[in-house]
Amino acid sequence: MDKNSIIGLFIIGAIIIGFGIYNQPSQEQIDAARKYNDSIALVQKEKAVVELATKDETPVEVMKEGIVEMDSASQVIADSIKKAEMNQTYGVFTTSALSEGKDIVVENDVLKLIFATKGGRIKSAELKDYQTYDSLPLVIMDASSRFGLNFFTRNNKNIVTEELNFEVNNEGFVVTGDNEKSITFRLNAGSGKYLEYVYTIKGNDYMIDLDLNMVGLNEVMAPRTSELLLDWKVNTPILEKSRVDQVNKSTLYYKFVDQDVDYISERSDEKENFEADVKWVSLKQQFFNTSLIAKSAFSKYNAYGETETRPDTSKYIKTLSTSLSVPFGGSDIETFGMSIFLGPNKHDLLENYGIGLEQIIDLGWGILGWINEYAVIPVFNALDSTAMSYGIIILILTVLLKLVLFPITYKTYMSGAKMRVLKPEIAEINAKYGDDAMKKQQATMALYRQTGVNPLAGCIPMLIQMPILIAMFKFFPASIELRQESFLWATDLSTYDSILNLGFEIPFYGDHVSLFTILMAISLAFYTKFNSQMGMGATAEGPMAAQMKIMMYLMPVMMLFFFNSYPAGLSYYYFLANVISLLQTLIIQKVFINEDAIRAKLEANKKRPKANKKSKFQQKLEEMAKQQQQLKGKGK
Description:
- Interacts with the Sec translocase complex via SecD. Specifically interacts with transmembrane segments of nascent integral membrane proteins during membrane integration.
- By secondary structure, the chain is α+β, with helices and mostly antiparallel strands.
- It has 17 helices and 21 strands.
- It has 3 domains: 27-95; 99-361, Beta-galactosidase, Chain A, domain 5 (Distorted Sandwich); 369-486 and 568-624, no CATH class.
- Helix 11 (437-451) runs antiparallel to helix 17 and helix 13 runs parallel beside helix 15.
């Protein structure tokens, strides 16, 4: 072979080798081909196993071997598919989405908390010092609740932290007294980037501090992100005997920065968009609340509060939810501080936090709230510190209130006594002028002017007492101190007492019979009847007397229906107030009022020279009498 032939063969060989190298598949193509072949093999194995299973003579061991090989291959492919899907959804948080979650138990003196690594949230909260109406552990918030952040990543993936598993730094603990401990949940985003929840629990406190630490998230979140949305929802459980009371006293309260506390009406289901930055939101139940408080403020962006009443068949009362915005400045390291309150609606406890949280307790508006906050509650707390029965405390409180109001009560009855003394003379005027209302009114006013009697003097003191009576109407239903406290036959002064369950519903009355309400209605009937003989009712005649008589009998019946489902503590208070008022009336009549002396004083007043000028009240009455006379004349 000559030299040229050798060179030619060498060139041909080089071309063949080079062509082979050039057309060699890449590693990705090799992997794809392998997966394809594996899939073909898997299908063939599945087909073979099915064929073996249909043959009676196939050994069981052979079938098992084929199934195991098929399951192993299927699992690998399924895991790969799942990971790919997770990566499409969660991106850098895929590892957290695939990991398994677990529960962590943390306790202090007053709370038992169950944390879930999935979402890094408080999954359940039990109040150790309280029970439900049927003596079960009181869980103020259960696993159906929601708490999590929402945000978008740079590659437009919507991250919901509730769906992801956080790493936790310990396996739970118990902290007591003045000590405090922290538990940390971290959601890793790779390369030292993470979102972190740091919960700090004090030994003897219902308030939990929560710091949101955001490290490197400015490189993870979508550009120009300025807020993370915080979604929080609680399904309020059945904790009390009366579902109606829970519905009527459960709602969402909120406080804007540097503004007054506001709330969504308990009587309606609403969605309230927040129009200013939010300091705190409280999901209030009848006697308990779960509240979220910002150390600075939540942004108003996309923020709202919402309430939804659940059906009567549900194990929950209402769904209370809020969406708040956590500000994000785009820095490499940021922290947002907040606190979570999980506890009772106890006025002094909430007031001590200094953020206005005590205003979620409905003590009445305006002067009613002022009376309760600055007069009734301090006295009640002072009596409570003696460790007496709450039935005795209510008795003493009622006596003290009646003593404070005694001067006003005395003036009311003194005015009534003057009117009784003048009754014969008023009767003579009525007989003298008959149907002439104008002259009758003028003569009556002249008599009042001569004797120095003001017919409204008995009404004004009663009006002064009204705010106190209404304030007590608001105080007792809102007092958690009465919850599950028994007295006599009442097992719980914070709800209705029942001596008989009817087994059927009476409209506007209920399905039970409250003995304290019956006693209150009976005492009101006696007091109203006796009082009518002492006051204005003693001088009333004609249609006015008939109307007063109807009201005297109608009011106790109305109260019987109205108060049957109200707290036993409230009905007991009104029963005591009626009895004490009746005793006061008897004492005033027997000891303080001498009608002969009053008559002599009024006769002396007649002899004194009087100015002819009429009072504005007398002028108004005479003007009204003239108008009635004119209308009567037109009608003839």
